[in-house]
Amino acid sequence: MKVSLVLSVSITAIIAALGMAAFGLVFASSGTVSASASVSNSVYVSAAPSSNTFGNVYPGSTYDTNVLFVDTDNGGNIESNIMISGAGWTFGSNSIGVSNTLWSGASQSSYTGTALTGTLAATGLIIPGATFSAPSPSNSIYFGLGIPAGTAGGSYTQTITIENSC
Amino acid sequence: MKVKYMCALLAFFGLITALPMVYGQLGEQAGQPTLNVSLGSSTTFNYTILNSGSTPINYSVILPTLNTIPNNATPAVTVSPMNGTLLPHSQQEMTIDVSMPSGDKTGLKWLGIVQVVEINANKNSSAGIGATINAGIAKILTIYSVAAKPLPFIVIAAIVVVIILVVVAVAYLLIRRKKVHNKRKRRAR
Fold first, then answer.
1. Residue numbers in A near B126 (CB within 8 A)
2. CATH code, B70
3. Distance of alpha carbon B47 from alpha carbon A148, whole angstroms
4. Which helix (H) or strand (E) holds B20?
């Protein structure tokens, strides 16, 4: 009983001492500190969807330039320029030239636009810098496709690269 | 029973909507590199690539194809690292190194694009014709050839001091040799 009493008194005293020390520290910390930070400018790239289909297109026919890919800058804070390039369409040993894909900054009701090339090229399309009210600015690119007459049937695929530069 | 089932369904959809979106987000520090490189030397440019997303990004670098200038060699461009994995919410410093051939003229300009491309594992396998998108970031690299830098003053001063020391040492040796020779001559007489 005595032991427990002494122990409880001691613990109470320690807690009180710690509390006072803590208060003392709180009252004593009246100094000021300064902080600085440098915010770097940056851009991000996010192209969606990751793949898209033109469906079934017959040889000698075209698909209107209206297949949409959206390039979004999530988290950047400065204007960026959109650049694109592509590889040729392939299906096994069969191929269709990369330039049969056309791109445009606006949806078209016909097969029209700028031919895609294997070399990364500036599109002239811009993603504005993000703001607090618009934190994820984006821009759209539309693609169309022409299939040369005599093309062998099959499921052709192409890789298009969309890059942001600042 | 129906109420319980509805509650479980609602909780499930609530959990799904509460889960954060999972994606990788490739980015780069702003600033296009313009490098003035002295003939016969090299210059580096460092910048940072970023992943602000919640999944890793496997990336690969595509080196620039610089324009060619007749009768002049094209500068050599290397980028390090050439590929890697950017972990979520991490960054990686990239180094572009440009070496200028010593025999080129000054005032020449080369342009090229350094690309960092996210390797997209999604290959379209659906029926019909399909396109797969790779996302990337690009730096437009501009290189100018400039005259080789003159030697700094301290190097020139050090060379002069060494030459003076060598001349003094040689002169001292010659004088001493002459004195010894004269002594021997006198003794011989």
1. 51, 53, 155
2. 2.60.40.10
3. 44
4. none
Q: Are residues A97 and A155 in the same domain?
A: yes
User: What distance lies between CA A54 and its chain's CA centroid?
Assistant: 23
Nearest CA in chain B to A165: B138
Q: Both A11 and A72 in a single domain?
A: no
* Tokens (6 digits) for A151: 């093309």
Most A CBs within 10 Å, among B28, B48, B51, to test the A interface: B28
Residue B188 to residue A94: CA distance in whole angstroms: 103
For A30-47, the pLDDT digits (tens) are 788 899 988 889 999 998
A5 has pLDDT over 50: no
Helices H / strands E in chain A, number of each: 1, 11
Inter-chain CB proximity A120 and B138 less than 8 Å? yes
In degrees rounded to 5, what are phi and psi of residue A111? Answer: -85, 90
Is-contact B37 B60, C-beta < 8 A?
no
- Secondary structure class of A28 (helix, strand, coil): helix
Beta-sheet strand order (sheet of B26-29) = A114-115, A101-104, A138-146, A62-72, A42-48, B26-29, B42-51, B90-99, B76-80
Token pair belonging to A40:
């770097």
Domain that holds residue A106: 46-165
pLDDT mean across residues, chain B: 84
**A98, A110, A101, A109: which is closest to A143 by C-alpha?**
A101
The answer to whether the complex's ipTM is over 0.85 is no
The verdict on residue A11 lying in a domain is: yes
Strand, coil or helix: A26: helix
| N-term to C-term CA, chain A | 77
Strands B34-38 and B129-146: parallel
Helix, strand, or coil here: B162? helix
CB atoms within 10 A of CB A72: 20
> Does the CB of A162 have a partner CB in chain B at under 8 Å?
yes
